[in-house]
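agent> Task received from the user: take the single chain below, predict its 3D structure, and emit structure tokens. No templates, no multimer pairing.
agent> Plan: (1) validate residues, (2) run structure prediction, (3) serialize to tokens, (4) report one or two observations.
agent> Step 1 OK, no nonstandard residues flagged.
tool_call: predict_structure(input=
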Amino acid sequence: MPAAHLRIYRGPEHETAPTLAKNVGGKPCVTVALSEVLPLLADAVNSRRTWLSDFDDDEITVSADLYEVLLAYQYYRRPSA
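)
tool_result: status=success, residues=81
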């Protein structure tokens, strides 16, 4: 029986950590892919995590095309539509 070779997994090698920057107002911000944040936020919403309310007044920046898609989605998901 061949010996088992184990390795330590340290995550994807190509991934770089997000860097901290300042926005126009001078507040700290980080730019990350939506694909990183969305699953975490969806899970937090589905799990009714109370810490989400701490960020109710925070603003986010999205691309114009994503905003248009979100507006269309909001319109068509209304019960009266």
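agent> Step 4: summary for the user.
Strands lie at 20-22, 28-30.
agent> Done.
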